[in-house]
Amino acid sequence: MDVSSPIICLLLHSLVFVSLFYCNNSLETRNPLVNQTFQSEDELVKLKETIAIRLKQLNKPAVKTIQSPDGDIIDCVLTHQQPAFDHPLLKGQKPMDPPEMPKGNNQISNLSESIQLWSLSGESCPDGTIPIRRITEQDLLRANSDIRFGEKFNHQHAVQVVKDAAYYGAQATMNVWNPHGESKSVFSLAQMRIMSGTYGKDLNTIEVGWQVYPKIYGDRRTRFFIFWTADAYQHTGCYNLKCPGFVQTNKAIALGAAISPISTYNGNQFQISLFVWKDEMTGNWWLRYGDKNLGYWPTSLFTNLKNAAARVHWGGEILDEQYEQASSTQMGSGHFPDEGYKNASYFNHIYVIDSRRLWIQPTDPMIYADRPNCYNIIGGLDSSWGTYFYYGGPGKNKNCP
């Protein structure tokens, strides 16, 4: 069946996310009925066929299948058969070998690093494969769109930013929590965000971190994620491997899989260390998780990020689609930053790669919170943590009505 036909694109849009890779024109301009519910028997049959086609596109043949304790199915897929190579610009290519990361920092905190639930049993993918979290029909029915922003959404940030310049990489260590959300239509995350371009027009981003997002994953577990866009979240890009783009090279980490263990209030702290840098030879943006090179975003995916990034953000974010004045969705640990270590969420060992291709600590970063009485941020510079900040909060409270 031709997935580029207007009918199939229309049906696809009504249930699942659609990228320009499959539907080249805007569905809203092609058919004003795009948001209507399809109820006739023929239309339901077509919807079922469309879902089957999309699942086949997303879920590649597995060499080995692993059942995760949390219910996820992890497919071990040959590296050259992964979704990335469905992209028109990447067809026929094979994964590149990791380059050497620029020297000068590469520091990882000495606290315990979180791992992933699917690998706790000792199961692993064979050499020459990568682990991919299998997408189910329920996943597609839940997620109408991967586009995460809307003018009416309650969208809050508590972030640290560096002034606009040329950046060729960034890193941070962040502790991992499981923030509560009041409904399935919210997300809460902590991320590092590398950007270039104009908001609302041609923004290019690379985003990495952890998130709780029931609409995408069907549960409230904390999951490792990546995201990218080349056109300000309009059509290109997606979470994890749900569209062609990111090329994974590592068999140990599954994008979108649950993280374990997580930090506890006034208890043990667990964290992840993430690095993103631009390879001088190829221009590709590489991702490293702790001591593991995970893969890369090919430079051909981007327009503005073909060169350097213009800015970097680190911090927390919540989105609530209920349009409330204040949301009770937690950010980070759900506690304000002034509660400090073991109680509040933090980022530390924050570095960027500057125009000289050197790792440097941002010594004069700016911090910003949309609504400090709901979610706040406090930054500093420490001899052991380097540039750091605490962030987060409970959301709705007596000072945040």
From TrEMBL:
Residues 149-401 form the Neprosin PEP catalytic domain. It holds the Pfam family Neprosin_AP. Keywords: Signal. InterPro entries: Glutamic_endopeptidase, Neprosin, Neprosin_propep. Gene3D superfamilies: Outer-capsid protein sigma 3, large lobe (3.90.1320.10). Residues 1-26 form the signal peptide. It comes from the Eukaryota. This is Neprosin PEP catalytic domain-containing protein. It comes from Pisum sativum (Garden pea).
